[in-house]
Amino acid sequence: MAVTSPILNVMIKAAEKAARSLIRDFGEVEQLQVSQKGPGDFVSAADKRAEELIFEELKKGQPTYGFLMEESGEHAGSNPDFRWIVDPLDGTTNFLHGIPHWCISIALEARGELTHGLIYDPVKDEMFTAEKNGGAFIRRNKRLRVSGRQDMMRATIATGAPRRATGDQERFLREYTAVLNVSPGLRRFGAAALDLAYVAAGRYEAFWERKLQPWDVAAGILIVKEAGGFIAELDDHKANPLETGNILASNEGIFSDIKKVLKSTA
Ligand code: 2AM
Ligand code: CA
Predict the structure, then answer these.
(1) Which of 86, 137, 198, 227 is 20 to 30 A away from residue 150, measured at CA?
(2) Is the CB of 105 within 6 Å of ligand 1?
(3) pLDDT, tens digit, 9 for 90 and up, residues 7-29
(4) pLDDT recorded at residue 37
């Protein structure tokens, strides 16, 4: 059993509290599917409630740290060196439709470097955690390791599509086609943080998506790296995918191949 640090314990407590609230609300959402209006407003309230619970719990643990959160944005802390990056509900569309594939994502950044990451899927009760230089774990006790597969033809690769209003749909379709040609096991599950956790767990060999937000990827970046995986910016190897939101996560075995295939579509 790995020893859990005090910081990670605070994150786990916050995630478990938010999870209880989200699980209750997810039960309601399943009932609301039949109504004509749908559960849209109800889900945004659920999302905000979860964010508030996480905020309170993290604040109690570390009163001086700042925050970057999906719903309420940036809160400066009195200590400028530390910042929590939080997505209270990643995979919102799944949640809204009663599809049990969504999660909570919490990361800690210290002086601009990711030091702690947690991704929690409470429906499957799978918690993925990592601490910098301390490895990545599932359910707090089993070490995570990226997959050893090296053959694109036998790989499982996940992606996410850009939204019509903000994304380059043509580019996405070119990338999708190019990857599908060499790797038939393509998936699109709709929760970027979980996609990254699954790369870390060796379930997919790779995941790529563009225009994500920092809270979608912060925890996942650290978890993938600590599981022995590679993270890259899709267009500029010097840029930080946490800032640009264009991310490729992969095991070592297919990293250069998938990068080449994606680049060939530019
Ligand atoms: P969300 O559920 O928190 O909105 C789906 O492709 C994944 O992308 C989800 O993790 C979703 O997070 C995230 N996402 C967030 N903003 C997005 C955007 N503007 N366009 C596409 N996907 C976005
Ligand atoms: Ca998200």
Answers:
(1) 137
(2) no
(3) 999 999 999 999 999 999 999 99
(4) 74
Q: How many residues does the chain have?
A: 266
Last-in-domain residue among 121, 143, 165:
143
Name the nearest CA neighbour of 225 among 119, 125, 104, 132: 132
Number of structural domains (the chain) is 2
Residue 45 lies in a domain: yes
DSSP result, 14-41:
HHHHHHHHHHHHHHHHHHHTTSSS-SHH
Q: Of the residues 85, 111, 143, which one is the last residue of a structural domain?
A: 143
Probe ligand 1: pick from 29, 69, 208, 212, max atoms within 8 Å of CB?
212
Q: Which domain holds residue 172?
A: 152-263
C-beta of 90 in contact with ligand 1 (< 6 A): yes
Helices 252-263, 169-182: crossing angle, 10 deg rounding = 130
**Which one-letter DSSP state was computed for residue 65?**
-
Closest residue CA from atom 23 of ligand 1: 212
Residues 24-63 pLDDT 10s: 999 999 888 777 777 888 999 999 999 999 999 999 999 9
- pTM, two decimals, is 0.96
pLDDT (tens digit per residue) in 228-256: 999 999 999 999 999 999 999 999 999 99
Terminal-residue alpha carbon distance, the chain: 46
User: Whole-angstrom Cα distance, residue 98 to residue 93?
Assistant: 9
